[in-house]
Structures are given as structure tokens and as C-alpha cells.
Amino acid sequence: MTYVTKWLGGLGLAFGLVMPSYAEEGKAAVSLTPEQITQLAQINTILKGHPQIIGDLSKSLEAYVTQLKQVEVALKEQRSWLTQAPEHSKSGAENPALTIINFTDYNCPYCKRLEIGLAKLLTEMDNVKVVNIYVPLQQQIASGTNTNSAFYALKVWEKEPEKFAEVHRLLVAHPTRHDAESLNRIAKETGTEKYLETGEREESIVSRNMQAFGQLGLRGTPALIINDEIIPGFLPYGELKKAVQKELN
């Protein structure tokens, strides 16, 4: 099932009266839940009672479906970069049954909460891998430095990957936005002070990450991609585990 048809199952079918062609596409891919059947009936009743909104609704739905198709194309184009590129830090299984793409920012509170859930998930599932895609939206340069937490983490991963796990843990554990004091403390504690200098390589990686982030229609962190499903925003652990189990099954 493609990314588009998953969304059409929830949206295109709901507007079956307005966009029958999309409804037929959705019917070929998914079946309706009892809740969706009820919602469909309610929407059909509303449209029959207010036919003047059908035109605008049809245009909006067409634009929405076009956007979804663009995202599907972007995901195919970016998948190799997001899942296979050695530049990205990774954790979990070497030969996974499932790879989770994690768009993250060490200065994002919800990203840090999600990182805790991802770490727990990897202790419970030995067939899953997490790939970190750094998009430092909240901080281009840390105060008092010429780098930031994403650039620093990327350099540690490249130069001394055996030290990355502890650096990552400390970056996530810091309760507030990173600055010179927090980065210097973490670097000193892990013996990675020499990596607190940003280079063109790190800037190029983050720039490409940001490009992929935008093409996928994302606007903020955290965000996950699990197979073809894009999940924006924070996901509580129970929902995260359920989403992963669904894809594994």
C-alpha cells in the first residue's frame, strides 16, 4: 500500500460523493472501519444539505491529493539518502526488519521525549534500526560557539563512532537549549572536544537533510517515517510501539 492510498483511505473515501474517482482508488486499497462508515454518511448528509460547498471542497481535495502525490515522489527520491547514507548516526539492528527514520533536533523538547521512547523500543525489539536525520530548526549556532549540537554529533559519529552513543545520551539528557557550556561539558566528559568545530561536511549534510525535510512536507520536529508512513509530531511510547508492530506484521 502506498503512502497516498493510505491517506486516501481516510480522506478520499470520506468525500466519495465529491470525488468519485479518488474514492474508487481508495476502495481498491483499503476497507472502511465502522467509524469511517459513520463519518462518510455524516459528510454525505452535510454535502447534500449544503451543495454550495461542494465546488470549493472538490478543489481543496484535489490540491491535497496532488500534495500527497508530490510527497510520495519525494519519499522515493530521498529514501536512499535517509536510510542508507553512512553520514547519518544510527542505532539498533545491523540488518533490521524495519528502519525508522527520525527527524530530530537536540534542542527540541519533544524530540528529547521521543528519543527516550526510541531507546526503549530498541531494547525491546532487536530487529529495528533508528536513523537520525538532524534538522536543527531551533538553533543554527549555539551561543558562545561556532557550531551546534547537530554539527557536533555528526562529527563525533564520523570520527569516533564508538563514542557517539554516550555523546548522544548526554545531548538528549540536557534539559534546555544547548550552549557553549553544555557542549563543552559533554565534549570534555566524553573526550570529544576536538569535534566542536563545524566544517563544510557537517553543513552540507544538514543542508541536504533540510531539503528532504521540506520536500516531505514537514514543518517541525520530531517526525518519523516508518516504511511509507510519515508521522509528524511527538508519539507516546504506546503509540510508537503499536505503529512499529503494525509495520513488522
Can you walk me through this structure?
The chain starts with a helix and ends with a helix. The N terminus is likely disordered. It contains ten helices and five strands. A five-stranded mixed beta sheet has the order 1-3-2-4-5. It has 249 residues and is α+β, with helices and mostly antiparallel strands. It has two domains: 76 residues, no CATH class; 159 residues, Glutaredoxin (3-Layer(aba) Sandwich), CATH 3.40.30.
Features:
10 helices; 57% helix; alpha+beta; 5 strands; 5-stranded mixed sheet; elongated; 2 domains; Glutaredoxin; 249 residues
Concise account of the structure shown:
The protein is of the alpha+beta class and 249 residues long.
Topology:
Layout: H1 3-10, H2 20-29, H3 34-49, H4 54-84, E1 90-92, E2 98-104, H5 109-124, E3 128-134, H6 149-159, H7 164-173, H8 180-190, H9 200-215, E4 223-226, E5 229-232, H10 237-248
Parallel strand pairs: 2-3
Antiparallel strand pairs: 1-3, 2-4, 4-5
Helix pairs in contact: 1-2, 1-4, 6-7, 7-8
Tally of alpha and pi helices: 10
Which sheet architecture does the biggest sheet show? 5 strands, mixed
In CATH, the topology of the largest domain is named Glutaredoxin
User: For the residues shown, what is the average pLDDT?
Assistant: 89
Q: What is the radius of gyration computed over CA atoms, rounded to a whole number of angstroms?
A: 21 Å
Coarse morphology:
elongated
Strand numbers in spatial order across the main sheet? 1-3-2-4-5
Number of domains: 2
**Which structural class fits the helix and strand makeup?**
alpha+beta
Low-confidence stretches: 1-29
CATH architecture of the largest domain: 3-Layer(aba) Sandwich
Helix proportion range: 55-70%
User: CATH top level of the largest domain?
Assistant: Alpha Beta
**Per DSSP, what share of the residues sits in E-state strands of 2 or more residues?**
5-15%
The CATH homologous superfamily of the largest domain is termed Glutaredoxin
End-to-end separation = 14 Å
Number of strands: 5
Oligomeric state of this protein: single chain
N-to-C series of helices and strands: HHHHEEHEHHHHEEH
